[in-house]
Amino acid sequence: MGSKVYVVNSRPNPGTVSVINTATNTIAATITVGNGAVLAAISPDGAHVYVPNSNDGTLSVIDAATNKVTATVTLGGAPVGAVVTPDNAHVYIANFNIVNVVATASNTVTATIAHSSMSGTLEAAITPDGKTVYVTKSATKLRSSPPPPIPPLRLFQWV
Predict the structure, then answer these.
(1) What span, in angstroms and rounded, lies between the C-alpha atoms of 151 and 111?
(2) Any idea what DSSP says for residue 43?
(3) End-to-end CA distance of the chain
(4) Which of 126, 124, 112 shows the shortest CA–CA distance to 77?
(5) Which of 31, 39, 107, 124 is in Cβ range 3.0-4.6 Å of 83 for a Cys bridge?
(6) What is the pTM of this model?
(7) CA atoms within 13 A of residue 149's CA, in its CB half-sphere
(8) 25: Cβ–Cβ under 8 A, 6 or more apart, which residues?
């Protein structure tokens, strides 16, 4: 198992992520990220941590080896939840009324998935084979979609 845990802080140090050493149960580092960080997603290879910042409309990218923010991706909106594809190639970010797709190699937005009924998207999850992304809404509906080929882009469909 991993030797570190990443915890997004909302109080008393909002806009930070604490790195917990699991062998000693102590804080090994505190990393400053954007404003409004709520959740974090760790890449399957453990190399990066992705933190959506809902108040800034950004995504902080943390290098897990150095515990430093190496990129800040502008998304707009109010991103909350994120998930990394099993091949580490893309991050899907639930961003209130859209889903942003970020290419991890370049840390750039490569697609935006929008649909009139997607208002209130909060969290994202992906199947182990990487073929379906699930996005929860603040309402009680659940949406899913295969990760879109880029291009063309497929919209989410109700399940």
Answers:
(1) 8
(2) -
(3) 34
(4) 112
(5) 124
(6) 0.84
(7) 2
(8) none
Residue 26 Cα distances to 9, 22, 57, 67, 143, angstroms? 15, 7, 30, 15, 38
Where exactly are the structural domains of the chain? 4-158
SS3 58: strand
Tokens of 127: 């199947």
> Which of helix, strand or coil describes residue 11?
coil
What contacts 26, CB < 8 A, 6 or more positions away?
Answer: 20
Give pLDDT tens digits for 40-95.
999 999 999 999 999 999 999 999 999 999 999 999 999 999 999 999 999 999 98
Question: Under a CB-based contact definition with an 8 Å cutoff, are residues 13 and 33 in contact?
Answer: no
Token pair of 79 as six digits: 């991103």
Q: Would you give the DSSP letter of residue 150?
A: S
Asked if residue 82 lies in contact with residue 48, where contact means CB atoms within 8 angstroms, the answer is no
- Three-state DSSP class for residue 60: strand
